[in-house]
Amino acid sequence: MLLARGARDRMIGVFDSGLGGLSVLAAIARALPRADLVYLADTAHLPYGDKDDAFIRSRVMRIGTHLVDRGCAVVVVACNTATAAAVAAFRETFPHLPVVGVEPGIKPAAAASRSGRIAVLATPSTARSQRLASLIQQHAGAVQVDVEPCPGWASRVETLHLDDPTFVEDARRHLAPLLAAGVDQIVLGCTHYAFLCPVLEPIVANQAVLVEVADAVARQCVRLAGTAALGQGRLTLLSSAQPERLHAALPALGLTWLDKRLTGAARQVLA
Ligand code: DGL
């Protein structure tokens, strides 16, 4: 659907490799009820977390450019992996475009820690990134940070079988040594992991708190939105593969309430 030019230029574009960025989209939708939102899932190329930086950068450029061409006035990279590998290059290409990235909440977690030890759960790509190393150096202070790569977790979310017993076992295996070491804040360093909270919370209960940044990202969008805050509260869903899966995933992720904003069926783009 082509929108009139005025409406086109007031949209907020949000993207991720797949479903994970919906956790950020939901926070933005709550904070900006009248904004017209476009969500693009790069389902054809997920997971990003086991790809190299050059590949991730090429996808971010392609998707970001597509969203700008559709008339997005603000672009949200709702993916820690893509932010770490490519947000700097994307900002260089579009110096006047407000671009919001998503980075692990090291700063709030370090500030809240009583034990002086926190952990970040992230994709293998984010875990080895220079950007995460710099974030830790800048914001952790004297707090010790354990970086825990969690291969396969984003793909687990994509299956929507979140409480599969083999996953629960895998999650315990990753978390038990961190809890035993005294970690009291566990940063979810991948937007997909927000949907794993129902599995992770009982494992860490009474020992550690899960730290998410979706609401902070939404607040940043509110600051940057300008007239993009003042649309008609619509939501367009786009995907580079299997667009029907995107809408079908909303109930399993507790996001049925987004249905009322939908402009129509999810459509395939950038195939
Ligand atoms: N949701 C993304 C992130 O925040 C990427 C997950 C993936 O595709 O590996 O890192």
Automatic annotation (TrEMBL):
One molecular function GO term is: glutamate racemase activity
Q: According to the lineage, what is the superkingdom?
A: Bacteria
Keyword vocabulary terms for this entry: Cell shape, Cell wall biogenesis/degradation, Isomerase, Peptidoglycan synthesis
**Pathway it acts in?**
Cell wall biogenesis; peptidoglycan biosynthesis
Its recorded reaction(s) are:
L-glutamate = D-glutamate
E.C. no = 5.1.1.3
* Residues that bind substrate: D16, S17, Y48, G49, N80, T81, T191, H192
Q: Which residues participate directly in catalysis?
A: C79 (proton donor/acceptor), C190 (proton donor/acceptor)
**Which terms does the UniProt entry file under GO BP?**
cell wall organization; peptidoglycan biosynthetic process; regulation of cell shape
What function does the entry list?
A: Provides the (R)-glutamate required for cell wall biosynthesis.
> What is the similarity comment for this entry?
Belongs to the aspartate/glutamate racemases family.
PANTHER family cross-referenced by the UniProt entry: GLUTAMATE RACEMASE
Q: What is this protein called?
A: Glutamate racemase
**Naturally occurring in which organism (per UniProt):** Candidatus Accumulibacter aalborgensis
